[in-house]
Amino acid sequence: MQLFAPKSYDGTPIHLPKSSKRSVRWLPQIGDIFPNFQIASTDGPIEFWSWAEGSWILLFSHPEAKTPVCTTELGELASNQAEFKATGAKVLGLSPSPINVQQEWHSDIEAIYNAKVWFPTASDPNGELASLFGMKHRHEHPDAPIRKSFILDPQLRIRVIFEYPVCVGRSVEETIRVIQALKMHDDTGFAIPSDWYEGDPLVVPSELADADVMTLVGSPPVIVLPYLRMAFGKERKGAAG
Ligand code: BEZ
Q1: Which strands, in side-by-side order, build the sheet including 121-123?
Q2: Residues in the ligand 1 pocket, defined by CB under 6 Å
Q3: Closest residue (by CA) to atom 9 of ligand 1?
Q4: DSSP string, 90-142
């Protein structure tokens, strides 16, 4: 049996990187239940499942404490405590740096951003968890984790995975937007269009009849195309009155 002879749609061969031929133990995917683990953090030891279960979770890796882009990422998270708390999400950072270095770093960030680092960050000194969670990309950094974020739902299921290179910091606004979008989807069954923010119209899934949309939101869907119907909530954005 030949496993690695893929062809593109027009029949030309696709050359996969050599590493793709190695067997992969587990690469976290959307829909997987996130595994349990124990780890030391700036708030003391954490047993992940008991800490996380029942809340939306942002679990993110970053390469190292006391590095420039990572400092801006933690500073922006610290500065957006109220917005994060409004989503109900808990946050846990992960890097190889020792806990005492992370604690010193939090103090630096708090002084610069004038905001408390209100969430724990954890230490994975040998990078074992980072390897298990697919946070190490050898072409991007020889040993430190990349910037990888998992958003988990209260049942510990992976709902979103972001991967960013070392040289680009992530957007707190986008992270919050995606948590709000997932919650809106779960609460209503509607799908979420590109660049959606709370109050914007939602996408009606194909299985939902116009009459059901009327019942749910009080107005019929707007038929943009035969395969794209939009629902406007009761508090339609920009509506008068
Ligand atoms: C940074 O956060 O800027 C950074 C982290 C690791 C290596 C290089 C830069």
Answers
A1: 44-47, 38-41, 121-123, 89-95, 56-61, 147-152, 158-164
A2: 63-64, 67-70, 144, 166
A3: 67
A4: EEEEEESS-HHHHHHHHHHHHHHHTS---S-EEE-TT-HHHHHTT---TTT-S
Alpha-carbon span 134 to 147, nearest angstrom: 11
The pLDDT tens digits of the residues spanning 10-60 come to: 777 777 777 666 666 789 999 999 999 999 999 999 999 999 999 999 999
pLDDT tens digits along 116-175: 999 999 999 999 999 999 999 999 999 999 999 999 999 999 999 999 999 999 999 999
Query: Collapsing DSSP states into helix, strand and coil, what is residue 34?
Result: coil
Contact between 124 and 132 under an 8 Å Cβ cutoff? The reply is: no
Give the span between the Cα atoms of 109 and 117, in whole angstroms.
Answer: 8
Q: Which of 46, 52, 65, 70 is catalytic?
A: 70
Q: How many CB atoms lie within 10 A of CB 120?
A: 21
Rounded to whole angstroms, the Cα distance separating 101 from 98 reads 5
**Active-site residue flag, 70:** yes
0.85 exceeded by pTM: yes
